[in-house]
């Protein structure tokens, strides 16, 4: 009886093998006239319109799947599969022609996204899962458009309306003749499927003399997101350049006048300005060479972001450190002013200690961040924060801003209490002005733009936010230089003195007469210097 059991086992194994072969090996061979029938889940007599031709709902998914695939941006493919539009199948004796993808000389794939084996074959040709999902979404949208947006009435040609149409990406509704229909751009229109602000594609309904007909070509030029980003980044660069040009003279003044080189308060303001200028230079370099470059057309671009070179990662690291250094300088500036104003009798902090704090806060957060992104082998020159690692540096920055907020509130508290003791409106005004002065110094303006606020998801709304943010970023340096240098009486006096000295020197040496005449010469005494050295302006 043993051989019976053995035969049973063989038979079951054979059955299993057949079943496995049947289910596992469903990839269609690349041979004509093989047996294949359409899914009967669809209504054969229902017609739908794609790019000007009417197709039965039962073959709709095959064709729209093909269009979704064929019109997917080439940048999303590993290797785009070739196609055959007239591949012959045999369904119960009838010839059926369908578009198919040629996987290799022995295998084909259907474009119908309901066919799981074919879908897997197509999936391999996409670069990422996300890009493939985007393709599937296109297929589903097409199916939905046919099933829910199209019927015999709105598909009929007429003299007054263009019929509903699937243009391969979007489902354009019935539209009056000589008007333009606009729809949010399909994400198929972008190079990458990431969510971006909404731009609109446009399709014209025109009068051809007898009928209202669509312009076959939908205008997707407005869907190009790169020009939108380019405008923003170029604006950012220009704003930062203006900030540098405006801050540099102030730094030179602070560095060249001996009194200022010794006053801690001025040293701290100067260092903040220097940090801002360095940050601006690094930000501009990174924007120009990596980010703006990546948006340019392939022939113009240096592809630095794709290459992810060591140099560009080092640039990102120092860019991050330079940004942290502006925060560190703001913290030290805030701490010092708080100490001078609130705790009037505290002794001056050692400048060297302040420098140490700035150095630590400059490099520590960026080192932590660089270690994390380095270990995880992030690409794109570390400029794209897709995994939230930016928090390694941002947390330090947020803490600094919170400390500075506290310090500023404490300064205001002390000012108000001083005002109450013998308050006049003039003092109130001075206190108010001082508070406003301190906001850019303490970095609190950053709170205004910290949360991304856009009223809707159009690109214009996002533009407004970004332009405002970049303007605020650049204005910090401008305001610090203006308030603490160009508009400061102490600086004016020092500059006048320097100018007087220079004119005396030139007069004695060469006999030149420049600047204010006799008056200035008479007043140039050592007493003037002593006096100006002791005069303290607001801050
Ligand atoms: C497939 O069938 C069509 C129509 O029946 C015929 O014209 C064609 O020659 C066939 N092709 C092959 C390879 O058998
Ligand atoms: C199939 O489509 C035709 C034309 O749109 C329609 O008249 C018919 O009712 C549909 N049949 C089913 C079962 O939905
Ligand atoms: C497929 O796409 C290419 C461009 O990507 C186009 O030239 C070609 O006409 C398309 N094929 C069909 C059948 O639409
Ligand atoms: C596919 O067949 C149609 C008619 O059935 C024909 O007009 C078209 O030229 C064919 N296309 C190709 C690529 O063979
Ligand atoms: C063709 O592709 C199929 C599916 O990826 C694979 O199983 C098969 O080995 C390939 N054949 C050749 C000759 O490359
Ligand atoms: C307008 O388009 C229709 C349908 O394609 C065509 O039959 C007709 O001849 C066209 N009229 C003119 C004036 O071109
Ligand atoms: C497409 O639209 C843009 C503006 O949105 C326009 O400048 C361009 O001329 C249009 N292209 C065509 C072919 O109509």
From TrEMBL:
Listed InterPro entries: GPCR_2 (IPR050332), GPCR_2-like_7TM (IPR017981), GPCR_2_extracell_dom_sf (IPR036445), GPCR_2_extracellular_dom (IPR001879), GPCR_2_secretin-like (IPR000832), GPCR_2_secretin-like_CS (IPR017983)
Any one GO molecular function term: G protein-coupled peptide receptor activity
Q: What is its main location?
A: membrane
Which terms does the UniProt entry file under GO BP? adenylate cyclase-modulating G protein-coupled receptor signaling pathway; cell surface receptor signaling pathway
Q: Which residues cross the membrane?
A: 235-260, 310-332, 352-375, 395-416, 436-455
Q: Which keywords does the record carry?
A: Cell membrane, G-protein coupled receptor, Glycoprotein, Membrane, Receptor, Signal, Transducer, Transmembrane, Transmembrane helix
UniProt superkingdom: Eukaryota
Where do the G-protein coupled receptors family 2 profile domain residues begin and end?
Answer: 145-227, 232-488
Q: Quick one: where's region Disordered?
A: 517-539
Hey, what's the signal peptide range on this chain?
Answer: 1-27
Name any one Pfam family assigned in the record.
Answer: HRM
Bilayer topology term: Multi-pass membrane protein
Q: Name one GO cellular component term.
A: plasma membrane
- What is the annotated localization of this protein? Cell membrane
User: Family assignment?
Assistant: Belongs to the G-protein coupled receptor 2 family.
The protein's name: Calcitonin gene-related peptide type 1 receptor-like
- Record lineage: Eukaryota, Metazoa, Ecdysozoa, Arthropoda, Hexapoda
């Amino acid at each position: 009886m043993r051989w019976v059991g053995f035969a049973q086992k063989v038979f079951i194994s054979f059955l299993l093998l057949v079943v496995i072969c049947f289910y596992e090996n469903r990839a269609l061979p690349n041979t004509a006239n093989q047996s294949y029938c359409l899914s009967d889940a669809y209504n054969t007599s229902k017609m739908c319109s794609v790019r000007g031709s009417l197709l039965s709902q039962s073959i709709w998914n095959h064709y729209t799947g093909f269009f979704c695939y064929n019109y997917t941006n080439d940048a999303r493919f590993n290797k785009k599969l070739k196609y055959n539009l007239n591949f012959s199948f045999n369904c119960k004796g009838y010839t059926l022609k369908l578009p198919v993808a040629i996987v290799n000389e022995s295998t084909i794939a259907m474009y119908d996204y309901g066919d799981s084996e074919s879908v897997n074959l197509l999936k391999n040709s996409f670069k990422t899962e996300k890009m493939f999902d985007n393709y599937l979404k296109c297929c589903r949208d097409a199916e939905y458009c046919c099933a829910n947006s199209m019927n015999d009435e709105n598909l009929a040609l007429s003299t007054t309306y263009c019929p509903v149409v699937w243009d391969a990406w979007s489902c354009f509704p019935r539209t009056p003749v000589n008007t333009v229909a606009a729809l949010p751009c399909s994400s198929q229109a972008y190079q990458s499927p990431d969510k971006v602000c909404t731009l609109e594609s446009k399709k014209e309904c025109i009068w051809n003399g007898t009928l209202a007909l669509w312009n076959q070509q939908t205008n997707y030029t407005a869907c190009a997101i790169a020009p939108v980003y380019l405008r923003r980044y170029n604006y950012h660069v220009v704003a930062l350049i203006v900030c540098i040009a405006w801050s540099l003279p102030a730094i030179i003044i602070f560095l060249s006048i001996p009194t200022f080189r010794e006053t801690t308060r001025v040293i701290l303001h100067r260092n903040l300005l220097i940090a801002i200028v360095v940050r601006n230079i690094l930000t501009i370099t990174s924007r120009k060479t990596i980010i703006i470059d990546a948006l340019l057309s392939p022939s113009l671009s240096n592809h630095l972001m794709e290459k992810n070179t060591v140099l560009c990662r080092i640039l990102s690291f120092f860019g991050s450190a330079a940004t942290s250094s502006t925060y560190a300088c703001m913290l030290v500036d805030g701490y010092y002013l708080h100490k001078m104003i609130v705790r009037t009798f505290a002794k001056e902090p050692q400048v060297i200690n302040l420098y140490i704090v700035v150095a630590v806060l400059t490099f520590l957060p960026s080192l932590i961040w660089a270690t994390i992104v380095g270990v995880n082998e992030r690409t794109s020159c570390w400029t794209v924060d897709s995994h939230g690692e930016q928090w390694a540096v941002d947390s330090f920055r947020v803490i600094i801003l919170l400390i500075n907020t506290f310090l500023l509130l404490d300064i205001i508290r002390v000012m108000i209490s001083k005002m109450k003791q013998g308050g006049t409106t003039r003092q109130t005004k001075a206190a108010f002005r001082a508070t406003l002065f301190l906001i850019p110094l303490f970095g609190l303006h950053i709170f205004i733009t910290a949360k991304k606020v856009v009223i809707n998801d159009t690109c214009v709304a996002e533009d407004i936010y970004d332009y405002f943010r970049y303007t605020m970023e650049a204005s910090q340096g401008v305001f610090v230089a203006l308030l603490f240098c160009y508009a400061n009486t102490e600086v004016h006096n020092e500059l006048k003195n320097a100018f007087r000295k220079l004119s005396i020197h030139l007069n004695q040496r060469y006999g030149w007469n420049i600047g204010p005449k006799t008056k200035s010469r008479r007043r140039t005494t050592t007493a003037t210097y002593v006096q100006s050295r002791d005069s303290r302006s607001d801050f």
